[in-house]
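Chain A, query sequence.
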Amino acid sequence: MWDLIESVNKKIKRDDPRTWKRFPGLSSLGLLSQALGPAAWKNRANEGLHGVFSSIIGRKELLVSVDNWGVMRPTRDVPDAALAPEKVRTSVAVGEGFEGTLQDKPDWKTTSKWLHWDLNPFLWLKEEGLDYQFLGDFIAENNGSKNNGLPKLQGMLNLVDATPQDGGFLIVPGFQHHIKQWIDQPHLSTYERNHQDSPEFVEVPPDDPMQNQTQKIPMKAGDFIIWSSEMPHQNFENDSNKFRMVQYIKMFERPSEDAYGFSYRKSLMRKHVPEHLQQTEIGKLVFGL
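Chain A, predicted structure.
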């Protein structure tokens, strides 16, 4: 991940916190760009991961997403000088043992309120979303697709330990059981009209009671969480001297061969997926080759 960060912005150095000011990607949301390195592809072609998604969705023929890395900078006790080599590890608190000046960076915190769905709940339950289309944007792939009766899932691999202070994932637990009741509330009719052209992303109204019904999910390195896309979720801000780093991975039903853009998707997979993974049975399956 650091290789990607340093390649996007040549002024950023992993061993010098003074250069971390202008982080690439959507730093206000804790999102980096697409995860395309060897480790990221290997994580996607994990047989155990496919098995879990398959058992929940009830299908074996699943594709894996090409989603983002997620990274949050530390916001507490950040050194004002370069770090010793042994400190340049994401699992180590960057200020521990540092003898120079430590600074808090509150302006590096991510947005605190953006509870959302990666679909439009009004269109989703009325089955008015779009059928699967691949338009060259892997990040939005299958977001907001038409409800086909199968569970719609998202997932995230935690790369370093994340306590409630380190920034992380929060969700409204159990909301998928109440989503129909929620969208039928009369006072949401205007909100629905205002978002009828937003099939892939809708924020929860800022004054909705569920804003206060969220639960933070601490995770260990290597933990993987899967949630229903019907559940509102977001990242919450980092308030510690540690990095938070994750990889987003989801799986979904493979579309038909004649689905819009699917042949183009295949060509991109052949171009970017490491050759040795293309030759494995799990690689052929989840990358759609």
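The chain has a mean pLDDT of 89. The domain at 2-286 is CATH 2.60.120 (Jelly Rolls).
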